Every structure is written in structure tokens, then in C-alpha cells.
Amino acid sequence: MSGKKSARETEFEGASRSTVHSPEAAAPIHRVSTERETSRTPTVSSARPEPGADGASARRRVAIVGAGYIADYHVPILQSLGNVDVVAIVDSHAPRADALAKRFGIARVLADVKELADLSVDVVHLLTPPDTHAALTRLLLEMGVGVFVEKPFVLSTSESRELEALAAKKGAPLGVNHNNTFHPAWTRLLARLRSGEIGRVEHVQVTWNVPLAQLDAFDYSHWMFRAPRNIVFEQAVHPFGQVHQLLGRVKCASTTILSKKELHPGQTFVDRWSISAVGERGTAQIYLAFGQGFTRSTVQVIGSDGTLEADLQHNTLTGEEKTVFLDFWNSYLAGVRRAKSLKRDARRGLVNWLRFTLGFGKREDAFFVGMRESIRDFHAALDRREAPANGGREATEVLEWCEASVAGVPVHGAREPELPAPGPARPGEVVVLGATGFIGQRTVAKLLAAGKPVTIVARRAHSLPSDIVAAAQDGRVRFLRGSLEDPKALHASLAGAHGVIQLATGGGDTWEKVERSMVQGSVDVARAAIAHGVKRFVYVSSVAALYTGGSVPGGVIDDSTATDPKPELRPIYSRGKIAAEKALLELHEKEGLPLVIARPGIVLGAGTAMQHSGYGLWTRDNHCIGWGKGDAPIPGVWVDDVADALARIVTYPKDDLHGEALNLCAQPPITPAEYVNELGRVTGRALYFHPRSLWVSQAMEIGKWLVKKAGRRSGLEFPSWRDLDSRGLTPRFTARLAREKLAWKPVEEREAFLDRCVRVYRRDADSH
User: How many domains does one find in the chain?
Assistant: First the structure.
């Protein structure tokens, strides 16, 4: 590109374009090598069990450190290996660790890595957040334990070189899970490169255009949002691992920041990058875009005699090479061959999915295969007493690509604010549990506007918006560092409090998780509130706890409507809300809990994903299938109106609401189809609403169930018509108690409601 810098191009104090030279750059090599260097000295633990007398490898004892979602991939893959025993789960969050151990039958659950010293563990799979990797890897290597680290390895090449040297000194294996280097489309590409199909590799072009669920949900607490460069180490390490395999080490890189956005004041996120680089064996152009509406993940390799392109999203591989024919026929053949390749790979993907779904084959989706083969490669290398494909040296060289790309981008984001130590509760203190969430932040703001002192409990202050930070610094908000699983912090927050608003209701993908977090967690808070003499306990439930289908008597749901009497026919979220309401009402009746239940409708507004499930089933982020025809208004309510109602409930001066449930539903005259159409108009996106009869949806769900049943899938439940019917939200919802007792007046006029709940997603022309 030439000429003046585009107005859309942004800078970090003049550093948006940066050129970085590797201090150890070698002369260019013009032939790609995809084989590992066989002369490389393997890094293998001398303490690893020797083969048994029969020649078979002794069993390897493995521990999992970090019980987050990625552990659900590591553990079953490890358990499928013939000579590996997963002997312990280590995580300071006991409920999460216990649940993982129970799910996979693992005997030991530990709270601290140091406790592994007594278990004779050979290898740890380290699955904790990236900023903990260096310290934990160092500790484990010092203990003589091998480590297989989730990407990114660490956050600087100086740390990685130090750890690589420490592993060699201790004789402990060290590997990094660069699982995209085992993506099936990628491994097919490498095989064709080795065959010499396209000659000498000259240039690599990467497109990494992906969504980020956290951005859509306005959840900015994740590590990757804490500093502008973090996203590269969290996400771009995937394509950089592949580029490194092709081109070797980076020699120089020039980065242009195409756009950025401010998530919170002082918290900047770079969402689009363009990187031009020179490696040892060729050049590269890399486009990174995060939080995008359309997923496109490709790697194109241009050689001296042809090209290959791997589509990682669809697991396809196409190529083109020179032929002896004239251009017109060569062009025809190129198109035909690409079409054949796409059809072959598409057919393979469909067959694999059907075989797995019907129970005739193994799971073969691309992400799972990449994870499986990466983990298998590491442990197979240990069996052979060789270095793994992605060992410490390779991981360091991948980090060089990351560092070269972010040179000039700030290392640190907004620092965690310094907040004063919490003092004693003030008169009228209101404790808001879940204060950093979508509704919680607004509730705190409403309470502060009413002059009420507020206490919040959170693990860290990074996730607090600036207005709450300012209120904590000037004494209007007490901030206690902790969590609901921390009894000491919980009781400290409730001591002397007037009221509690329980928004931190938890969740999970199994009933056991939901019961523990949503139900038992709320009961624990309620018992603590009773012990401290709290005067008002507000539990924020949902209309999802009610039966909201087409056979509601009179077609009206009011405050007196009881929870669904058939919770077993509802999804686990609804079951959790129903069970929590019942448990808290029992405490109200038997132990005097001053309980008021709030049941918001479909809560909308800035701060939640625009693809709300209340409109229908979003099969893609731009295609919404209605829960019915989508031609009747649904009980939408603006988030600020919900927060206003909660503030009014907790400060309501009388006791006549105790034991009551209040519907917090507005009645804007807007249908799901109209919501989606307006979203498309204001965002400039191609959004589609597809009306579908509930009976058609039910028939399709039954069809899926039959296919899975034929495949002998375990844990199947017959599709619940009651649940599907409830999603239609066909009754009319009243909110009499909130309107009469609290003088609650939610926004309901059509245009005003659309302004606050839909047009907040209007496309910002200056954001790109």
C-alpha cells in the first residue's frame, strides 16, 4: 500500500508499524523442511520409568493442573493411551476440581502443585491461565516433573529459554500443546509439501478471522483482554506455530494495527492486525482479526511450482500446480481439481460426523483430532525417549514470531486499580453478589444513585467498570477480594448488612454443577444472611423457572404463578432456578429468611450479546430460527429497568413482599422477527429470522434423537415438548406487584425501547 496512512489506521504512540530483527537470524534457506531435526538432543526425563521386563513401557503417572474446560479434552485423551494413568487433579477451586475428578473417575484432588511431590508423578499437563505458566513450569521442573503446557508456553522468549535450559538440566521432558500443527487439513498439506508437489516454498499467507464469545457477551475479564498484546499470545500463537513449521525462525516483522477499541476506560483491545514478515525460508503475510462475525481460517502456501491452501474451519485442502496444457485448459483443470478436492474433503467430514453420531466410528472433528494427535505425539516421544515435535526449542521459536509481531505494542494494559481496605458496614449497606455482571453493574449504579452504600465481592478488581472503581476509591463501595466459595469473605461482606441481592447464581453444563453452584450456592448465601440478621434477601431468578407455553390457563402469567410443576421436563438452567426458588422459600417458611424473588423477563441492552436466545435459536450468528412464527410480542425488559426494580426491592420499607415473587417484565410491542430485522438494519449485517412451527422443530429434535439413539449414545433424553413450548413465551406477562408496590415504570414505548435495547448495537463507522 502506498500514499497517505488511512484514517482507519490507528497507532500506539507512533508504534503501530514496527520492524523487529531477530538477534540470531540465520541466512535464508530456500527449501522447506517439515521434518524435525533428527540431530536435536532429546530432552527426556532420566527419572522416567524404564521399560518392563517384557519390553513394554512402564505406566506413566500424569497429573492435571487446572480443571477448566480444556481439561475435558486432555483427560479422556490421556485415558485412551495404553500406558498412562491420570492420578490427580490440581486446582485451587475445589468444586471445579471435584467435578472433573468425579466425571473421569480420578482418585486424588489437590489444591496446590507442591502436593504432587508425594505422588511420584512423571508428567503434568499444565492447563492454567497463560500468566501462570512460567512460575508453575519452573516449580514443576525443579521438582523433576516433566511438563506439557497448554499454549502459549510462556509470555517471553527469555523465560522460555530459561525453562528449556532448566528442563535439560533436570532431565525432565518439556512440551507445548501447539495443537493446530496437528490439525488434519494441515497435516495433509505438510504431506503434499514433502512430496515436492509445489516445489520451493516462497510465501505463506494466513487469514485468521474469528469470533470471540467473550467480546460478544461483553465479558472483558479474561487474561487475553488485560493488555493489548495478550490476544496475540492467546490466539495468534496457533497460526504462528504453523508459519514457523514452514518458514523457520522469524528474521524481521512489520506490524500495522488496523483497528482497536476501548473495552473499558484504559482497557484497549486490538482487534485487527496486519503483519508482514520474513522467515528463514520465505516470507509471510498474516491477517489477524478477532471478534468477527464471519469465521475464516486459512493458510495458503505459494511455491515455485504451485499453491496449496488449507481451510482450517472446514477441514479442506485444495491446490494448484503447473500443467503442460495451454492457459484456457489449464484454468479449466485448476477449477475442476479444486472442486474435486473440496467435494472429497466435504464428503469425508460428513461421513465422519455420521459415523460418530451413529456410533460406528470415533470422533474425528478437526479440533479434537488436533488435540488428540498433539497429546499422543508428546507421550509417544517420551516412549521413544525422543524430543517431542513441539518441545522447548520449537516453542521458543514460535514465541519469537509472537514477540516480533507485538513489538511496540504496550506490554501492560490497565493496571489493577488500588482500592482501599474495606471498613465496617455502613447503615443501610446492600451486598450485591454478582456485581460485575450484566445486571449487577447496573444495580450497583442504581443503588449508588439512591445514596445507598454497597459491598461487592470479586476475585480481582480488573473486571470492575470505572464507575464502580471510582465509587470504591471514594468510599461509597466496599470491595472485598474473594468469591462465594470463600466463606470468610462471604461472612465479612454480610456482617452488618441491611440487604442482599443474590445475582451470582452460577451455572454449568451438568445437573451436578448447576445444583452445586446455582442451588446450594444460593442456599449457603441465604443461611449466612440469616446468621447475620440481614433484613432483606433478594434472589434474582428468571421467568425460565415458569411454564411459559401455550396452555397456560387464561394465557396470562402473573406474580402468583408458581414455578413449573414438571421441572424434570425442562433444561438444567430452568431446573436450577426452580430448585433454588423452592429451597429458599423453604428457608423463608422455616427459618424466617426475609426473601423476595425477582423474575426478570428477556433482559436486553448494551452489555449482552445481541444474538439473544429469547428471539429464537441462533444456528449461526446471523441466522435465527424462531421459537414459532415470531409474530407475537415477547416479554423484553431493559437491563436498567431490571436494576432499578432490584434497587427498589432491596430498599422497600415494608415486609409485605417477603415470600413473594415479582415478575419484572415489560410489554414492548415488538416481536422476535422485528427485533432481528432491526438488529440487521442498525448493524449493517445480513441477519435473517426464520419462522418455524414448534411442531416442526419438535419433529426435527426427535429425528436427531433417533439418530443418536441408533448410534447407542449414552445419557440421551427424549426431546421435551414442554421445554420447546415454553421457549415460545406465548402468554402475556404482568408485573402487578412491581408496578403497584414499587411504582416501577419500565420503558415500553416501541421506539424508546428499540433505542435502549437494539440500537445500542449500531455500527460504529469509526471502529474499523
Answer: 3
